[in-house]
């Protein structure tokens, strides 16, 4: 897929996708002869992980750590048991953190809605 299709599928801007590439967070699988990035479904999946982590307040470094763990486990090569357990523990930590951050957002949402309603009431 070319970047425009990837942007449409992920709902990320071209600028954001390019920024993630520049920072090494997500690298395209290939490039066309003209130098355009060509992404696979796996690349899109990685971008989706990044997109989903950002609103929960995860840093690019945290995102990179999660992607490294999942890449290693999904890479097809055998992973020694100790290393596998370490990656699974890391993923579990991210799952727990994500669950907590979602709970925090749910708690904050009524306050945000109340604030928006207060502003709406001030308008003619």
TrEMBL record:
The lineage of its organism: Bacteria, Bacillati, Actinomycetota, Actinomycetes, Kitasatosporales. This is MerR family transcriptional regulator. Keywords: DNA-binding. Gene3D superfamilies: 1.10.1660.10. InterPro entries: DNA-bd_dom_put_sf, MerR-type_HTH_dom, MerR_fam. Residues 1-69 form the HTH merR-type domain. Pfam families: MerR_1. SUPFAM superfamilies: Putative DNA-binding domain. Transmembrane segments: none annotated.
């Amino acid at each position: 897929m070319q970047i425009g299709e990837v942007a449409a599928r992920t709902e990320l801007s071209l600028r954001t996708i390019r920024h993630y590439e520049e920072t090494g967070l997500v690298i395209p699988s290939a490039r066309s002869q003209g130098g355009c990035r060509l992404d696979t479904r796996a690349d899109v999946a990685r971008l989706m992980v990044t997109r989903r982590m950002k609103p929960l307040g995860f840093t690019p470094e945290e995102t990179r750590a999660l992607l490294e763990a999942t890449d290693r486990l999904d890479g097809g090569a055998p992973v020694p048991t100790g290393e596998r357990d370490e990656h699974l523990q890391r993923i579990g930590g991210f799952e727990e953190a994500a669950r907590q951050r979602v709970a925090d957002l749910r708690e904050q949402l009524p306050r945000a809605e109340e604030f928006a309603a207060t502003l709406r009431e001030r308008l003619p």
